[in-house]
Design a protein that fits this description.
Elements (H helix, E strand, L loop, with lengths): L14 E2 L6 E2 L7 E6 L7 E5 L9 E7 L16 H7 L3 E5 L11 H15 L1 H4 L1 E11 L1 H15 L8 E5 L5 H9 L5 H15 L7 H6 L13 E6 L7 H11 L10 E6 L14 H13 L2
Parallel strand pairs: 5-6, 5-7, 7-8, 8-9, 9-10
Antiparallel strand pairs: 1-2, 3-4, 4-6
Helix pairs in contact: 2-4
Length: 297
Amino acid sequence: MPPPIRKTKFVPEWIDMGPKIPVPKIDWIQDKRLDIRYGDHPQQRYDLYYPEGRTEEPLPTLVIVHGGGFTHMDKRDWHMYPGFFALREGFALISVNYRLAPKSKYPAAENDLMNAILHIKANADEYGLDADRLCLYGTSAGGNLVTIVGLKGHNENAPYAVRAIAALCPVLSFRWIRDAVRERRTSFLIRLMLPYMCRQYFGGRPSRVTDKVDRASAENYIGETIPPFYLQSGTRDPAIDFRDVVRFHGLLSEVANASSDNLALDILEGSPHAGAGPDYLEPRNILPILEFFKRQF
């Protein structure tokens, strides 16, 4: 995933523009806990940041899950930058790492997110967090993870269920991508990406890992009701066909409890994939998500 371009109007105190790839600063956040272990693997860690001037009141919490094609990126790279706006809005911020492919194949990342949520909830009292006001925020591959884990937790009334989910330019359905590639109705980049991603994440070519392709497709987990869901995607995204996001929104809108109060579709006209432009890092596209979350509390 390419770095965010430099015309982004970053808050200067929040990001270091010196490196080739801008790096969020965390030294300005005085109240934080870093590298909290939720498992034995070195990548099974998360960072917890608190808003300034917090009281003893348990905090709503934004859990950010980074993208990177399931193979790279990190909890302290530019994916966490939108979470700084959440801190300013009174949320606690947690940025999660998970095991990466190709060393850790599917469903390692999915299982890690479930276990991270369980760990956060089990320690919520100690951390000063409200376990019932936990929201997931995932981009690209992270969008796939938050969508599937969020839907499964809701449908199964599982202990890792969360209050609301935001998926940005998400990889929603490997099955839809596979079918679009077969029918040659998708971009050249996606036709290149699918075999590579399947080898890295699932361990084989798309035709050899059909069961995993199906299980990693989010439409399979839409139940009779849905948790609150915010979908955001760009019309010029070469890696994710925004029409899949619209299609997924259509499926969500058919369930019994779907309404404009708990389901939002935000299509960004002309926007590329996250990291290829400023769109997903600008407050005009971040703050509506945070307001959507607040309405669910």
